[in-house]
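Sequence in, structure out.
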Amino acid sequence: MTIDIEQRVLEKTWFYRYRLPSGRETKSYDEGALDQIHATRLAMMDAELARAYPRGLAGRTAVDLACHQGYFTMALAQRGVAKVTGVDARDEHVADSRLIAQALGLGNVEIAQHDVHRVGPNELGTHDVVLCFGLIYHLEDPVGALRTARSLCKGVCLVETQVVPNLSGNVDWGSYRFVKPLKGVFGIIDETYELHGPEMSITGVCLAPSTEGLLWIMEAIGFRDVHLIVPPDDAYEQHRYGKRVMVAGYV
């Protein structure tokens, strides 16, 4: 049975490079060109979780929103989290995540199908670790998704996203006599012609935040100690140059 499952995994091309119990590795898109993004995310995640839980992750629970094919769900499970729930809206991602969890023999993983805008603590509970990687810049309601992440969090939430250039200054808010400062911006990105893509938006209308805007929003919706996680020296180029960021917020 295990051999059959592994063979099913090896017959697919994955977004991630998984190492299976036999030592064999999955084929990944673009011959591994994306591997450095995933490695950078893992390094930044590990650094912040070591800060948050210096005694380790044993006994903790986690939820991975928009888990895709489950790469970071599986990583948390392999790092000793007692139970990790991966959540995704797409049928194929749910099936792939369940398959790889079975192939890796991870009994502490559960995969659930939900829309991030239609789920909360009643369905998923609250968790010590909440991941939100590569999600909010594919959404037309990123603030709503961040509110969902906050509602599920009782420890630390890690948000990784593409960001856009910021604008600062003041804007007349109804009248020149009443002025408001800009706290950040969203860039409108068109994915309406890419809805078939498994890594793309479901609606096609995407709002990508500026770094300053993301930090402000996370504080405004109830996170504390909100800060940027420093990328490693060998980080993927977008992380190295601030085109992608990972932000931590605590409850």
